[in-house]
Amino acid sequence: MRLDAVISDAVSRLSGCSDSACLDAEILLCQTINVPRSYLFAHPEDVLDELMRNQFEARLQRRISGEPISYITGTQEFWSHDFLVSPATLVPRPETELLVELALREIPRKSEWQILDLGTGSGAIAISIAAERLRSQVTATDISPDALAIARENGRQAELSNLVFLAGSWTAPVTGKLFDVIVSNPPYVAEGDAALAALQYEPKKALISGMDGLDDIRILARDCADILTQDGWLMMEHGINQADDVANILKAESWTDIMCHNDLSGRPRVTVARGSGK
Ligand code: GLN
């Protein structure tokens, strides 16, 4: 079968289950025959041999069953890097780039600040900040050893010397230290939320946070003030309907300058707050 025919067959089979059927088909085919996407357009008449056809079919079946394309290819682009991902980590989302952008807005280029990323997963947020602010030191924690192994490998590939990964729950690995900016994309989906049906391949521990999705945000609001410099910033991603609840949680813990920022789709997505100088 010619490459163009393989693609059009795959697109028609994917169109019911993917919003990006054509792109998915092309990415999976490129991964299978190990060529850049431009090759597909330059050589539509190439013929796929049976071995390659079977390998492509196996990948296509995974995508048709709903597995995210990033787990099939093992990588996801975020900010300006390709990151390794695995079923132990969430797939980094475009909306999470807002968290990086807000952190970079606060961290002066030439400053030697201490930055903390709690629940780093693949390390995408921590590594993106570290790469943009080479004089600052970035510490990233995660409770999952499997996620940390991926984050460390991503850090190694980024060849950054201002980055350290520590294992443990939330602030536990950094007790007694002080940070100028703390960022986190914690789990924030409520148990039983209908949205979980579409997220079945991603780690539940990284997604779900109690009955209302806010258990971990409550822990961060309670514990982060102790490890933040006076006037330091806490920045947390949350669900698009959680801005008021997050603001109330932060107010109750005496945070000030609480402000929610919208993501690129105009949805309330990241709330920032200043420590009250405990
Ligand atoms: N943004 C993810 C989603 O709802 C959830 C990620 C998270 O809980 N941190 O698809």
Low-confidence stretches: none
CATH topology of the largest domain: Rossmann fold
Strand content: 15-25%
Number of domains: 2
> What is the helix content?
25-40%
CATH homologous superfamily classification of the largest domain: Vaccinia Virus protein VP39
Ligand types = glutamine
Write the layout of secondary structure elements.
Elements: H1 3-14, H2 21-33, H3 37-42, H4 50-64, H5 69-73, E1 75-78, E2 81-84, H6 97-106, E3 114-118, H7 124-132, E4 137-142, H8 145-158, E5 163-167, E6 179-184, H9 204-207, H10 215-223, E7 228-237, H11 243-252, E8 256-262, E9 268-274
Parallel strand pairs: 3-4, 3-6, 4-5, 6-7
Antiparallel strand pairs: 1-2, 7-9, 8-9
The structure holds glutamine.
Task: Characterise the protein shown here.
- The chain has 278 residues and is an alpha/beta fold.
- The protein has two domains: 3-66, Helicase, Ruva Protein, domain 3; 78-274, Rossmann fold (3-Layer(aba) Sandwich).
- Helix content is 38%, strand content 19%.
- The chain is built from eleven helices and nine strands.
- The chain has helices at residues 3-14, 21-33, 37-42, 50-64, 69-73, 97-106, 124-132, 145-158, 204-207, 215-223, 243-252, and strands spanning 75-78, 81-84, 114-118, 137-142, 163-167, 179-184, 228-237, 256-262, 268-274.
- The strands form two sheets. It has a seven-stranded mixed β-sheet with strand order 5-4-3-6-7-9-8, with helices on both faces.
- Strand 1 (75-78) and strand 2 form a beta hairpin.
- It is elongated and about 65 Å long.
- The model has no long low-confidence stretch (mean pLDDT 96).
- Bound molecules: glutamine.
- Glutamine binds at residues 90, 93, 185, 187-189, 195, 199, 207.
